[in-house]
Amino acid sequence: MSFVMQPHLRVVDSAPERDFRADMHAALAAPQRSISPKYFYDARGSQLFDAICELREYYPTRTELSLLRGHAAEIAALAGREAEVVEFGAGSLRKVRLLLDALENPASYVPIDISGEHLAQAAAQLRSDYPGLAVHPVAADYTQPLQLPAGTRKSGMRLGFFPGSTIGNFDPEQALRFLRMAARVLRGGALLLGADLVKDPAVLHAAYNDEAGVTAAFNLNLLARANRELGTDFDLDGFAHGAFYNSPQRRIEMHLVSRRAQRVQLDGQTYLFEDGETLHTENSHKFSVDSLRALAAEAGFTAGPVWTDPNRLFSLHWLAA
Ligand code: AVI
């Protein structure tokens, strides 16, 4: 893996279009069809995800924001002065701003994101709003082995930030692999991690089946993206959004469900969907506080304080690396 240096952006070449095409072929050819949820996030998908975060039914974002606000002083005391904040995914600037505002004189911010465009925007915004902060964006797939740019950290600790329960979108082996990588790059520092909690399945079900249909549009956008970028001929009206809580596996599963028997073409190959057959697009694992701490310990972290809301919807973990 090599870094391509530009004035403000370090790019790790991961040929995303080729990955999407190969992964879509593999998904369509498999007996149990499934594809990584990372392909949700083109420009439209990112907009739809932002809209999901505002939904009445989708409690994780506002609950995590209130945990960050409510425990800012404790987090700041643990982080100390001049921390370097490394964010895995340049997602919600709202969240990292809360963290940066809480910290004492944060020295630098390293957002890592697969979308160079998203990163460039995030970096430009933060540079103008935090003139004293050194911003070093890294365009990379942080689910792959990762090397952080050297020499960006000052005297403070390296503080990883992985909010939103994105950890739940990994399967258990990927989650462990990610946490091991994070423990390695943050060694001597810590990771501030948001994790959604196991709860009443009705609450979970509502969060992924909102009345306004935004989550359905987010799910179906994957097919629109494939049509545009890969030249598939998915009939968007031929698929329905499906999301349910798989309680033995403690995860929400999202699927695109074929409404009838139909064919889909990709690069001259034809794939058949039976009526009711699905393309599995996402898992969103839910954790207990203890299961998350055990996973982190297995990856090499020492679990520290954990903060939850009074309804125990969501958890925010301090994990020492
Ligand atoms: C990004 N991730 C944590 C979200 C989740 O809840 O698993 C993605 C999402 N999918 C449907 N709604 C939100």
Shape designation: globular
The percent range for helix content is: 25-40%
- CA-CA gap between termini: 24 Å
Radius of gyration (Å)? 20 Å
Query: Mean of residue pLDDT?
Result: 92
Question: How much strand content do the residues show?
Answer: 25-35%
Topology:
Blueprint: E1 3-5, E2 10-12, H1 16-29, H2 43-53, H3 59-70, H4 72-79, E3 84-88, H5 93-102, E4 108-113, H6 116-129, E5 134-135, E6 138-139, E7 158-162, H7 172-185, E8 190-196, H8 201-208, H9 214-230, E9 239-246, E10 251-258, E11 262-266, E12 269-273, E13 278-285, H10 289-298, E14 302-308, E15 314-320
The protein binds N,N-dimethyl-L-histidine (AVI).
N,N-dimethyl-L-histidine (AVI) binds near residues 166, 282 and 284.
GO molecular function, one term: methyltransferase activity
GO biological process, one term: methylation
Keywords: Methyltransferase, Transferase
